[in-house]
Amino acid sequence: MDPELEAFVPLIPPIDLSDPLADRRNYAARAAAAPAFDTTGMEIEDHAVPVPGAPDVPVRIYRPHKAEGAIVWLHGGSWVMGDVDTDHPWASRLAALSDVVVISVGYRLAPEHRFPAAVDDAYAVLTWAAGHAAELGLDPERIAVGGHSAGGGIAAAVALRARDEQGPRICFQLLNQPGLDDRPENWTRGHLAETLAGGHVHAAASWRHWLGGAPATPYAAPARAEDLSGLPPAFIAGAEFCPYRDVGITYALRLLQAGVSVELHQWPGTFHGSQAILSADVSQRQLAEVGAVLHRAVAG
């Protein structure tokens, strides 16, 4: 493991997802304690986006330097935790590093709102952003989707759904350590990947909350999709000691075999979510690369 990250391992709180309400409170407290990012000069505004047959979904839009390219961004949190406030440090930093408008989505959470609630919310926001591009100051030809962890899985599902339903054009998908596959036999093996930060136990609990015992469809677990052709170009980033490392690699290879352009980066010595340890050099490089990749694909 990267030595700068290893020093923080004993400080990582266990999250077994047995009490989602308590986990959300603790998750929010840790996010609030994260170093503030300087958003001077960045326009930030909140909206409520209508979702057919469901409550409006909150979004927070970060616009750096009058950017017109945008990404519909889905936060991590195992489908159970997180909102636009907890993701503020990530979303604001991503906007600044990429010079791209970040539309952060506060999708509904499991287990109260299982699949397909979060996918429906994210797809509604994509449709809204594309349909209101002129008034939002966006270029409808330069709208991407992306996310971290569970949010990466939701983003991949939105790309599949937009293709299948001939929905809004997505120019790019950015999947950071994405949760794509509910099948444990496909998860990364090895002591650290299976145990660190909850490992396989945490991953299994998150999928139980998300699916509620129902069979997984490709929109719930995109790795189950048989046809990956016709999807947007992708960037997939993985961590060496992450349960989803091998799933991400396999998904990238399958995209390539289906004729989709893919950039894949596996970060050695890292673990799931370790980029939140901002003092580590490898975390700074991870964040800088994600911003640079998004800028190249979307900023124009």
What does it look like?
Helices cover 37% and strands 20% of the residues. The chain has 300 residues and is an alpha/beta fold. The chain has a single domain, classed as Rossmann fold. Strands 1-2-4-3-5-6-7-8 form an 8-stranded mixed β-sheet, sandwiched between helices. Helix 3 crosses helix 10. The protein starts with a helix and ends with a helix. The relative contact order is 0.15. The model has no long low-confidence stretch (mean pLDDT 96).
What is the CA–CA distance across the termini?
Answer: 37 Å
Count of discrete alpha- or pi-helical segments spanning 4 or more residues: 10
Strand content: 15-25%
Q: What is the N-to-C succession of helices and strands?
A: HHEEEHEHHEHEHHEHEH
Q: At CATH's second level, what is the architecture?
A: 3-Layer(aba) Sandwich
Strands ordered across the widest β-sheet:
1-2-4-3-5-6-7-8
Which assembly state applies to the chains in this document?
Answer: single chain
CATH class: Alpha Beta
Supply the number of structural domains: 1
Which keywords apply here?
globular; 8-stranded mixed sheet; 10 helices; alpha/beta; 37% helix; Rossmann fold; single chain
Summarize the structure.
By secondary structure, the chain is α/β, with parallel strands linked by helices. It has helices spanning about 5, 20-30, 90-100, 115-130, 135, 150-165, 190-195, 200-210, 245-255, 280-300, and strands at about 40-50, 55-65, 70-75, 100-105, 145-150, 175, 235-240, 260-270. It has one domain: Alpha/Beta hydrolase fold, catalytic domain (Rossmann fold).
